[in-house]
Amino acid sequence: MNRKTALLSAGHGSVDLYQGIVPVLVPFLVAERGYDYLAVSGFVLAATLLSSVVQPVFGLLTDRWSMPWLIPASMITAGLGVALIGVAESYPFALAAIGLTGIGVAAYHPQAARTARSVTGGSHVGMSWFSLGGNLGFAVAPAAGPLLAYAGLAASPLLILPAVAGAAITVPLLRSGGAARLRPREMGGVDDWPAFRTLTAIIVLRSITYVGLSTFLGLYVGQRLHLSAGASATTLFVLFGGGVIGTLLGGRLATRYGRLVTMRWSYAVAALALAGVALIPTAALFLFVALTAIALYIPFSLHITLGQDYLPTRVGTASGVTLGLAVSAGGVLAPALAAAAKATSLQLVLTCLATLPALAVLLTRRLAEPT
């Protein structure tokens, strides 16, 4: 990993930290502001919808105009929204602050993905490092909990510091605009919209699978192995750790075997491993959890590069969809999965989820490597 890729990856982490920090704020908003569960669910919904649905809009804008300045500006915007929570005296003000964070996250990804394509030269390994930065940023968001527990929401203005640091280390990269500054008419290639739609469907299937797994895994393992709540939570560390390994493996495997072959085999392994999670009654299911996480994350960065290559004149749009809209689709179906689990069982839901990566395998056969 070269210096530019490392800095861009770190900047990505400083932004995605704010995607994961909103759920951390929820208990403190309930305790200090007296908001009920319905009110705080509005915060999570606002942050999720704005950070995902709006991303394709920013993708269209970055395809039309060169906007490298959007990267540091969106970082500061994301951090500012969280910082304002501490001074928000009313629910509408607090909701607007969280919405500001969602917009900042949405504005960052399309332009940053274009810049990553330029900085890494389109390297699969380079894009995997860029993706890993975002995943790690999301994973470390709970580290804000001890600060808020000690000082309360009054300390939330300090949470803008990661955004300031991320902007500071990213600004020097903007001088080497490269392909990130190219406009559609200056870029070669023909857009393959049918292939891109198929890829989007695959990403949606992966999103539903991962959201369902991460939502119910701790509960299921606790029931299956008769573990305490604390012991059950360790399962998520296995899930997140496997995700880190999978993200790094994705670029290397794609470089050696090709993106589509790598995606096809990783989703096949994910289907089998997730079935193992649902059906294995012993502690060996932890091994299947790790294998599922690795397999689901191997294609993560490959989705981005494939989307950009399928839409070579709409790189920003492709990035906005693959990083935002399609990835968040699983969250929309989370309530339906919860209702299904309540009506049947967690085991049945996890077993059904195992069919989604299998369906993704079939869809990959409709794709061809972009030329």
Q: Could you say what the CATH topology of the largest domain is called?
A: Growth Hormone, Chain: A
Please compute the radius of gyration using only Cα atoms: 20 Å
SS-derived structural category: mainly alpha
The largest pleated sheet is described as:
none
Distance between the termini: 26 Å
What proportion of the residues form beta strands (DSSP E)? under 5%
| Name of the CATH superfamily of the largest domain | MFS general substrate transporter like domains
**Count of helix runs:** 18
On the 0 to 100 scale, the average pLDDT is: 84
Q: Which residue ranges are poorly predicted, with pLDDT under 50 across at least 5 consecutive positions?
A: 177-182
The domain count comes to 2
> Which CATH architecture of the largest domain would you pick?
Up-down Bundle
InterPro entries: Bacilysin_exporter_BacE_put (IPR022324), MFS (IPR011701), MFS_dom (IPR020846), MFS_trans_sf (IPR036259)
Organism: Kribbella ginsengisoli
Protein name: MFS transporter
Membrane topology: Multi-pass membrane protein
